[in-house]
Structure formats: structure tokens, C-alpha cells
Design goal:
single chain; four-stranded parallel beta sheet; 4 strands
């Protein structure tokens, strides 16, 4: 496993499928690149957007996706991401947000 990143960005995704692509690309476009991105999909649906995120995760080692088999809610999704984080600094966002 690579060294720990400086920042873990956790993006929570529940019914954000139509926005998650923009969120992902806005994070990847930042000038600061020492991060990992954990996308927590709370109750995944088999959508084109989620498949695209999975393709990105397959080609960018900084991206990990964690799927909940059903909707556990915001708190559980946040805790799932935090438990998986490798950095000491955590940035939380929803999968319908953009980093400008």
C-alpha cells in the first residue's frame, strides 16, 4: 500500500448519481494532489455514473469506493469513510458538491 496521503476526501453518495461525476472530476482537478478520495455509496444503484466512478477508481489508485448494501444513513456513511481514511486530515463532502 502506498504511503499515507496528506488528506482524505470522503464523498458521500446517496441519490447523487447525476452529480457524482462532476464532484469526482472537481476533486481530481485540484492543484493539491496528495489526497485519497473515498466515495461511500450508501445503497448503490446500478447507474452509469456509479460505473464511471468505478472505472476511475480502477485507473486512479487514490480513489476507493465503499458500497453499503442498503441505505444506512448519513452518520453511518460518514463513519464508514472515516474508518477507511488513511490521512490524519479529513475533508467531508457530499457527492453533489464541487471543489472550486
Amino acid at each position: 500500500m502506498p504511503s499515507s496521503p496528506a488528506v482524505t476526501v470522503i464523498a458521500l453518495c446517496f441519490n447523487h448519481e447525476r452529480f457524482v461525476l462532476e464532484t469526482l472530476e472537481s476533486i481530481r482537478a485540484q492543484t493539491f494532489q496528495d489526497f485519497e478520495l473515498i466515495v461511500v455509496v450508501d445503497n448503490p444503484e446500478n447507474t452509469e455514473a456509479i460505473r464511471f466512478v468505478q472505472q476511475r477508481a480502477n485507473t486512479d489508485e487514490r480513489i476507493r469506493i465503499i458500497y453499503h448494501e442498503r441505505n444506512f444513513g448519513l452518520s453511518k456513511a460518514r463513519n464508514t469513510g472515516i474508518d477507511a481514511a488513511r490521512a490524519d486530515v479529513i475533508a467531508m463532502m457530499d457527492a453533489d458538491d464541487e471543489c472550486l
